[in-house]
Amino acid sequence: SNFAEMFGKRERLEMSHIPGRSRAGENPRAIAKREAAAVEEAAKMDRARTDWTETNEFGHIIMSSNARCLELSSMPDHGIKSGPVYPRGQLVEGLNLCVDNVANANSTTFAILQPRRKADYNPDESVRYALAAGANKPKPFELTEPLEDVVVVDPQSGRIESPHVHLNSIALPDEDVFKIGRALVFSEDVELLDLYGNFIAESPCCFLIDGLNQALEEKSAKKLKSISLSGNMPGPALYASLQETLVLCQSLTSLALTNLFMPMTDADGAVLCKGISKSRTLKSLDLSGNLLGKLTCWELKISLQKNKSLETLNMECNQVQDDGCFHIAGGLMRNPENSLHSLYMGWNQIDHVGFGALIDYTGREHSVLKRINLRNNRISRCSSGNVIGGLARGTSLTSLNLAHNRIADMSEMGIGFYMNASLLDLDLSYNMLADDAFGWFSDWGKDLAATDRNRLRSLDFRHNKLGDTAAQNMCRGLARRKRNRCITRIILDDNLIDPTLIKAVHALVNPTKPFLLVRREVKALLLQKLMDDKKFWKERDWEALQKKRRMKMDEAVRLLNMRTEDEVELDQLVNQPFVSRIPGVKDMVVLGSQVFTGTKPVWYLQEELLDRQKGKADADIKLRKALVKGIKKGE
Prior knowledge:
Blueprint: H1 2-9, H2 28-50, E1 95-98, H3 99-103, E2 111-112, E3 128-131, E4 143-144, E5 164-166, H4 174-184, E6 192-194, H5 202-217, E7 226-228, H6 236-248, E8 254-256, H7 266-273, E9 284-286, H8 294-304, E10 312-314, H9 322-333, E11 342-344, H10 352-362, E12 371-373, H11 387-393, E13 399-401, H12 411-419, E14 425-427, H13 448-453, E15 458-460, H14 468-479, E16 489-491, H15 499-508, H16 515-561, H17 565-574, H18 585-597, H19 602-634
Parallel strand pairs: 5-6, 6-7, 7-8, 8-9, 9-10, 10-11, 11-12, 12-13, 13-14, 14-15, 15-16
Antiparallel strand pairs: 1-3, 2-4
Helix pairs in contact: 4-5, 5-6, 6-7, 7-8, 8-9, 9-10, 10-11, 11-12, 14-15, 15-16, 16-19
């Protein structure tokens, strides 16, 4: 047709004449530069597929495009705001790895290798490690993604070929779960069973664990180390089977049952915890995000009195109160051979009684507890239990997190910190600390033996009610720590402290400068703060003086306006006392009043007002007379 002929003959329009478009062709150098940038970007993404430490110019980790998710399921990391799971292709702004994640890797899409140098990883000196927090910072850990992440069941032998069963967040059908349960009976090399986030119901879960128990009875699954059924929908029948698994499997090191869509009740947790006492290899138990309470903690107490292998216990986001925390501490006290070094009890309902019991346990000789996390609880004070004695005698506790509580008085705890010889990191952010709670800080450094023994290096006091008095006490205490400058970081953001004093505190904790120069700098900053305070109060005094003068003037005007006609005539007759008529006396009285009171006498102000009014009246009369004369001349 004609339309087809016209369409075929149509040529491409030349649009280079449009304003803003160059008529010349693209520069060959620009083309080469663009192609080189594309090749470099492709190479970077290719490296990111096998090396998770690859970052962009902003220091963000570049995840490979075929990665399904990034999961740290063995221990939740609350430093990552958006949760432990990252979808495909997302840029991660700094990946925090807990020590427990490194030690008990229960990952879903990557394997954690050993650090490049032994000095990069030291659990006794640091709790968390940042990976790719900045573009130029060292990246000690290498994370590699496996090429295949599927379970292959041999149809002839019915065995699972892969030692690591990773099936995460893929909505696994019940039929496949039944297949895995039947295949576990014949599989001997399975080391990790991770079915996170598949919405598996109670019956398939029970069939899976029953198949595992049958394999354990037949001594087939001898190498199983980790089980994760988090993010599913199990029921009460599963926990009795898992109790039997804990008894039969003497190679299991990690068990995770977190964030269940049908949360584990207190009675179900009690059934599960009965098997912990008979387990000789379990190292990590994660029961966070459930409805556990007093009954579970009571069974944990009984189990912890006998268990010697458990190293990490996570009970976050449950309903644990003081009595439950007291039970756990009691079980640890009665077992001198326990191995628990990490306890996570955040997001519960624990108050000062449970906190005091845990701190009292850390002061025992057999205590090996290194990390206690009690953030987002109801701790209001630190006076219950032997807090001072526990902190003073403790030799194992290295990290204490008490953020997001209600602590207002930490005097007793401060004395314990002063005498402690093991604590490294202390987090007291988002509490109610005020100036009166920091008197103990000024005493630091007086006892040389305690100062040399102290190892505290990081203090976090963000978002409290600290003022200038608390900062001055910190400066006094830090100025005496010349022999042991172990404190290298104090965070004071979102408080009521003057910026000059914050600079002084930060200067005292700077280990790179000689102590003599630091003291000079702090002395200059404190002198500047003193001068600023004097100037401030001088301005306030001047404002108060002006206000006083205005009030006296208003009082004089009020008295003048309230006079009667008889008082006006009497003032005109008498005017002033006889003494004031003597030359020079009136001036001396006015001068003395200004020197001693800062204002003029009321009677003098009244005279000035009368003279002013009289001057205005005389000027008005003169103006009127001049107008009258002008009118007469005009006539």
